[in-house]
Structure formats: structure tokens, C-alpha cells
Amino acid sequence: MNEQSKNIYQRINAVMKEVSYVQKDAQIQGYKAVTHDQVVSVARQSFVNHGIVMSLSQMEGKFDDPLNGAKMRLYTGKYEIRFVNMDRPEEYISVEIEAQALDNGDKASGKCATYATKTAVIKLLWLETGENDESRADARDTSMIDEQTSSELEQQMIETGENGQAVWSKKGQRLLAKYKIGHPSQLKETKLAAFKKDLGA
């Protein structure tokens, strides 16, 4: 099926196949968040490739009265974000988002629109967000090394203790701590090569 013949749902699905994750890249008052620019950098090219154009319309917007003489004012806006099939502009998916922003100047409405647009893209594409790409990959990796490999590694990591019993060598202890495991059998296959390299160093 060529790109021009795809409907808007097929195009969105194609983008979802290409884009599944956006990393949190900003520290805001003690928590991590995804910025608008980060979402754009992840999703924009796929929207372009699959002929999807975004448009934003503001449906409502208002400033709340400041509390106790505070300079910061809360702005609340309601928006419709359309994801349009560029080859058939009458065909689109519409997402309605209500957003809020605090500002002591004239930037609140812009911040609000930016937040709404970012949120619409994340929700439409069911984007996973997180703080660390590597930890995300690790969480999905469930393949462990086999029993024979585990036994071979164990033999290289133990030594005889003062009481004659087998104990972890100092290097073995460091490696277990580094890879956050209690025994070589808990090592994932994707970490095996690096583990062996560290063990032989």
C-alpha cells in the first residue's frame, strides 16, 4: 500500500510503529518531565514521512484571579489539536486537551498551548516516557545466561576463605555490585560480554 492511499488511522499507526518512547529531559522542581522540544525531536520526522499535519485551535482560555496578591497568575486553556491527512484534508483525528500554565507576565497562554500540543502527541501515539534509555531496555530484557555459563563464571569469581570454604573474591564482589546481581546466574545475556571483559581485566 502506497502512502497516499493510507487513511489517517493507518498513518498514525505507521508513526506508532516508528516512535514508541520519549525520554524525560527536564528537571522541574524536583521531578523529571518531557519538554515540548523533546517530543518534537522524536515525532516530527515520522509525521512528515507519513503525511500528517498538525493544527491547533483554542476553544477556551482565561486567567484566574491571583491569590493573596501573588504575581503569578494561572491561565487555563482548552484546545483542539487535529492530526490531518495531508492528501485528504477533510480526514483527521481530533484530540481535545485542557491545559494550565503559571506566569507573571504575558507568556502563560503560549506555555499553555505548548503543553497542550505536547500532551496531545504523547497521548495520541501512546508514547512511553522515562528517564533512562538504558534502564528501560534492561527492564524489557528477561533473557538470562544458561546454567553452564553461570557455573563457569562462578568458578572464576570464587576463592578459598580462611575457614576453607569457597567465598567470592574481591573482584567477584566488585562485579556483583557493579552489575547489581547476587549470583552470576542472574546475569542477563546482553550483559555477558561486558561482564566477561571486566572479569578478565
Write the layout of secondary structure elements.
Blueprint: H1 8-18, E1 21-23, E2 26-28, E3 31-33, H2 36-49, E4 52-63, E5 73-85, E6 92-103, H3 108-125, E7 128-130, H4 133-140, H5 147-157, E8 158-160, E9 166-168, H6 170-178, H7 192-200
Parallel strand pairs: 1-7
Antiparallel strand pairs: 2-3, 4-5, 5-6, 8-9
Helix pairs in contact: 2-3
Describe the structure using short key phrases.
201 residues, two-stranded parallel ribbon, single chain, alpha+beta, Enolase-like, domain 1, 40% helix, three-stranded antiparallel beta sheet
What would you say this structure looks like, in words?
The chain has helices spanning 8-18, 36-49, 108-125, 133-140, 147-157, 170-178, 192-200, and strands at 21-23, 26-28, 31-33, 52-63, 73-85, 92-103, 128-130, 158-160, 166-168. It is elongated. Strand 8 (158-160) and strand 9 form a beta hairpin. It has 2 domains: 3-134, DNA repair protein Rad52/59/22 (Enolase-like, domain 1, 2-Layer Sandwich), CATH 3.30.390.80; 143-200, no CATH class. The termini are far apart. Helix 2 (36-49) crosses helix 3. The mean pLDDT is 86. It is of the alpha+beta class. The protein has 7 helices and 9 strands. It has a 3-stranded antiparallel sheet with strand order 4-5-6. Strands 1-7 form a two-stranded parallel sheet. Helix content is 40%, strand content 27%.
